[in-house]
Here is the input.
Amino acid sequence: MYEDRRIAVVVPAYNEETQIGKVIETMPDYVDRIVVIDDCSMDRTSEVVNGYAEKQPQRIHLIRHERNRGVGAAIASGYREAVEKGADVVAVMAGDGQMPPAELVNIIEPVVEGKADYAKANRLFTGEAWHKIPKVRYMGNAVLSLMTKVASGYWQLADTQSGFTAISAEAINRIRVKTLYPSYGYPNDLLVRLNGFGFKTVDVPSEPVYGVGEKSKMQVWKVIPRMTWLLTKCFFWRMKEKYMIRDFHPLVFFYLASMGLGGIGMLLLSRSAWIAVETALEGALRIPPTNTLAAGFCLVSALQFALFAMWFDMEYDRR
Here is the structure.
């Protein structure tokens, strides 16, 4: 236990037979329960975990998925198991050994002390992040973090793809984790729902760890298109739940005006471009001034409405 709170750690693992033992062995003593979810690994991950579980049956519990369901689904299974067994705070540490056990106390403390309902590591706080994190992953993380800020409303958070987190049992019970996105978009979907239900979140500085034998299974250029669609749906869900059903804020109208004017502006701009190309092929280039001016007005107005809506969202979230 830690400060009279029962602590559980969920460890999602997929083909981590070489790394999972290190994660279990270095787990701090104050962790009451370790829930390892083997997401249908093709190697000896389950056998290795079972070896440790035989020695500590009250502390280590293995869940094996019969088919590969994704890291999000694995974490959801672990959350439910941990809460059912009485955990007050549930942390997540990947099975590849990239999350320093010594930093776990920093991640759980805000939740244990009631300062936040959800805490996550932020590897971008340190100046070493650019040098330690592979460049493609760093840039992909930066893009997804910006998109998640808009979708979730948690403008103060960064490094949204970090899986080193802690969450209260109350939050787990409220957000219906079973229905969350099952793959790499899980932390983004989770943040959107946490904001929708009004939970407090906080970033905790963390040292990025790479080159410890881990093997990344995420392909950034395949993930971003899917994440764009997911975050778009999440954004509209949050607007409906938070600013129309649970409360009301005029920023909804600002976002709608931005989308409407943006759509009209793009149509007018396309018309101007079509006329310009058509007349150029006939030997007399002509750009319709009124149409082009209207397109510019609509697009600039759309940008202004969007910025005002984001500003309102940031101010509302400060509470």
About this structure: Residues 152 and 191 are 6 Å apart (CA to CA). Residues 251-317 form one domain.
